[in-house]
Amino acid sequence: MRIKIRKKSLSQCILLLFSVLMISCSSDTERCYYMDATNGNDANDGLSADKAWKSLERAKLVTFRPGEKLLLKRGEIFGGELEVTGKGTSAQPVIVDAYGEGDKPCIVGNDTSLYAMRVFNSDYVTVQNIEIVNTGRKPLPGRTGLKVECRDYGVSRNIRIHNLMIRDVNGSLVKELGGGSGIYIVNGGDSVASRFDSLMIENCHILRCARNAMIWSGYYDRSNWHPSKHTIVRNNLIEQVPGDGIVPIGCDSTLIEYNVMRDCPEVLPATEAAAGIWPWSCDNTIIQFNEVSGHKAPWDAQGFDCDYNSTNTLIQYNYSHDNYGGMVLVCDSGERGFSVGNKNSIVRYNISIGDGIRPNETRAGMFSPGIHVAGPVKNTLIERNIVHLNAKPSAAIDRSMIVSDSWNGYADSTFFKKNIFYTAETSQFAMTESTNNHFNDNWYLGNYRKLPSDGTLKTSNVLYQQKVLDVDKNGYQGLYTLMDERQAGGETCHFVNKESIEDFFANME
Asked: What's this model's pTM, rounded to 2 decimal places?
């Protein structure tokens, strides 16, 4: 009898010990680490607000496991660089977040920091509700606020950047010197090809960052191309950024929607070209429901761009206004080898108001057409767009509606269908030596030096006169009826309504 009882007790003890170990492992994978720049101490274990760590250096010692959190106290300023490496799962992501009450916790980079925060070689990591500042005493080429990087790693999955304020990053204003950015996404590696899958950047506010807002650096050579896939960039507000806004590089199947870029300062050197939202070395990019305004780059400065080494770029339902350049650039450098050119771009259902107002000479003289097609792009479709060119502030400003010119070659097979071209002053179409331009069923409202060959061209429309020009000759009030007001970065902005603009074109017939 005693032996039976002892065996039973031993069995119960083993089960109890196993349960304790399981509970301990479960607790470990859900633990939170706290940081408090004022009252913390790096000698603490960091596992409660009362025993928080103090410095960002202490957090570098941790590789975060599934379900773990790193929490920064609100209202605190943390100096230095925060390094995060986490191995979460879909069910238990690693989370970097804020705790307490008050303003977002703020990470401020050192004087020579190339980044204030980096997420490196990670999976299923969410970073949210944090402010990032990286201002040195002088501009530093390549400086960024947040760097998201995978190198010699393989596939970095499901990194989510949410509700960050990234501001006052003083990188270089010159692209060739390394530029600078609010967010910098880097993938590469020689021993292990590395890329991102399902990276998401949403609800962030990027303010006063030089040179760019968010830009990628990845594999661009088509002989060694390992594209990041399924990226989503959504509902971000970009303000007072002088260069490029959102530029995926080396990506496939990227969705960029409901973002706003506005109020770009006129500070870039005369050599610099930049635009709002555009892909390079990318396939199957969708850019939709975005607003870009006030871009003042010395060259380009369009709201949107279908750039080269890319195929199947779709730009639709966007709003471009008051940019020095026009609504859109479609271009190909003519270089081959690493590049596949620019093929099958589609630009449709976009609205441009008051673009093309560059007051200064460019490398090509006074140049700011509403639509610019440059180089040997192939099979481009531009349809059902509204390009409303207002009176220009000075007589010297370019008044061209469309220019298709050379960049080591000319465009071939460009289709312009059912677009509304309105000009308040005499405009022109300069197709130069481009070939197989097909203009079909467009409206040409206003005066033009010479109209392109269009078998079904129309020079007046009662609906546009009544709904737009009679309401406001500058187009804003009338065309706002085709848009929704929606929040981006806490600000009310205008986004094209898909059903409204499609119905408008249907009723134009």
From this structure: 0.93
